[in-house]
TrEMBL record:
The keyword Lipid metabolism does not apply. CDD domains: AdoMet_MTases. TPR repeats lie at residues 68-101, 203-236. Residues 302-390 form the Methyltransferase domain. Coiled coil: none annotated. InterPro entries: Methyltransf_25, SAM-dependent_MTases_sf, TMTC_O-mannosyl-trnsfr, TPR-like_helical_dom_sf, TPR_2, TPR_rpt. It comes from the Bacteria. GO terms for biological process: methylation. This is Methyltransferase. Pfam families: Methyltransf_25, TPR_19, TPR_2. Keywords: Methyltransferase, Repeat, TPR repeat, Transferase.
Length: 456
């Protein structure tokens, strides 16, 4: 009895957020009865503290009892750890014990969505909604899927239903995102404000508020929101980057964690947004420039920096024998792999990837340098990696003056004088530079410079 009392006391402390006590308990969980309710309380507390592996230990023990909630919790944590097959099995076991477990059914759809099986994910979400029309998580996830496919009206309707049922941070951010992508930034702000009042410490809400205000031209108020974000989370790369952009600081590049996180989130709707909303034509424009100056000479091995989902490789299909893709975003690389154009794909920084390149026929970079202002390292690495006669083909937002500039949009622009100085410094030659529209959308039409540079 005394031993159980000590276990109860330890579980109670761990469940209140004492991570040291939780770690000590985790080394001897065999003494804790699997059905003990304290196991779930500790798992939740540890999960919220961000220690997923430790949370899983408590859930593993709780799941021995066959508890549907424990099995469901295991699935959630396993999915977050990237162990999707095990997560799928955990959700399936949960459903064996509780066939109508809406969250488990919804998360099975989520696993299909992450794997890129969008039709199967949608089928699962709609099956949930057929018998549980008020399932907010299914509505929320289906809204995200529809948005990724460019079905914005349907996405908005689903997101509003989810938000009406559960007006918390996640559903609010999804709805604000949909409204913002449609250019309805004042509406997005109106959705965010009341939820911020209820959740004033949620950095995601403050960051989104900064975006909504910036898009309305209220840069001072946007700056205040970004500063609040950074105050709540000092390491927030996106907020720090936007503060620099709005205060005229000329940093060298956007933080890698911001770029990675942004594109992991954005990846599933990347192409529909660029093509339909921004009217993005940079890959086709760069290919046309190369066709004019390259004389139709075939390329052998080509490295595509910031490859994304593969838009540039598609534009250069037929001109190159072999594509190597490089990106910071794991999700982008997943989608690029599904396209089947790349012989190799690497999660890496552009300059670091080029350091391993030898005798490349071409280096491609479309829309990458809006996230990198200082191109010194990339030009140096490209000059070393290219074979004689190899091409460096890229686009930049057209800048002024002698250098590069971080604009209030958060994107970098490079001037022709700056690019020409790099070309000369690294022993390359300019074959062509043409100015043309590079993007549209809510910021208006933006001019870009398309460059064809060659190694002698």
């Amino acid at each position: 009895m005394a031993k159980l009392d000590r276990i109860d006391e330890a579980l109670a402390k761990a469940g209140m957020g004492d991570l040291s006590k939780a770690r000590t308990l985790s080394r001897d969980l065999g003494k804790v009865p699997p059905g003990h309710p304290g196991l779930m309380a500790v798992a939740v507390a540890v999960h919220q503290a961000g220690d997923l592996s430790l949370a899983l230990k408590f859930l593993d023990r709780a799941a021995v009892s066959g508890s549907p909630d424990a099995l469901y919790g295991r699935g959630v944590v396993l999915a977050a750890l990237g162990r999707r097959d095990e997560a799928r099995a955990a959700f399936a076991r949960c459903l064996e014990r509780a066939p109508g477990h809406v969250a488990a059914l919804t998360n099975l759809g989520g696993l299909e969505q992450v794997a890129g099986n969008l039709a199967e994910a949608e089928r699962r979400y709609r099956a949930v909604l057929d018998f549980a029309p008020q399932a907010a998580l299914a509505l929320h996830n289906l809204a995200g899927l529809c948005l990724a496919q460019g079905r914005r009206d349907e996405a908005e309707d689903l997101a509003r239903r989810a938000h009406g049922l559960e007006p918390g941070p996640d559903t609010t951010l999804r709805l604000a995102d949909i409204l913002g992508e449609a250019g309805r930034h004042a509406e997005a702000e109106a959705v965010l404000n009341p939820v911020l009042d209820a959740h004033p410490a949620d950095v995601r809400l403050w960051r989104a508020l900064g975006h909504a205000r910036k898009k309305q031209g209220r840069n001072g108020e946007a700056l205040a929101a970004y500063r609040t974000t950074l105050g709540l989370e000092p390491g927030d790369g996106e907020a720090g980057h936007m503060i620099a952009a709005l205060t005229g600081a000329n940093t060298q590049r956007a933080p890698a964690d911001y770029v990675r996180g942004f594109f992991d989130t954005y990846a599933d709707r990347f192409e529909s947004h660029l093509v339909e909303d921004v009217k993005y034509q940079a890959p086709a424009t760069l290919r046309a420039l190369f066709d004019r100056v390259g004389g139709g000479a075939p390329l052998d091995t080509v490295i595509d920096l910031g490859c994304g989902t593969g838009l540039t490789a598609r534009a250069f299909q037929g001109a190159a024998g072999r594509f190597i893709g490089v990106d910071l975003s794991p999700r982008m690389l997943q989608l690029a792999a599904a396209g089947g154009l790349y012989a190799e794909l690497y999660e890496a920084d552009a300059a670091a990837a080029l350091a391993h390149g030898v005798n490349l026929s071409a280096v491609l970079a479309t829309d990458l340098f809006i996230y990198v202002g200082d191109l010194e390292d990339i030009f140096a690495a490209a000059a070393r990696a290219l074979a004689p006669g190899g091409w460096l083909l890229f686009s930049v937002e057209a800048g002024d003056g002698e250098g590069y500039t971080l604009r209030p949009t958060g994107r970098y622009a490079q001037s022709p004088a700056y690019i020409r100085a790099l070309i000369a410094r690294h022993g390359l030659t300019e074959a062509a530079c043409e100015r043309a529209r590079i993007r549209g959308g809510s910021d208006g039409d933006i001019d870009g410079d398309y460059w064809a540079v060659r190694k002698p």
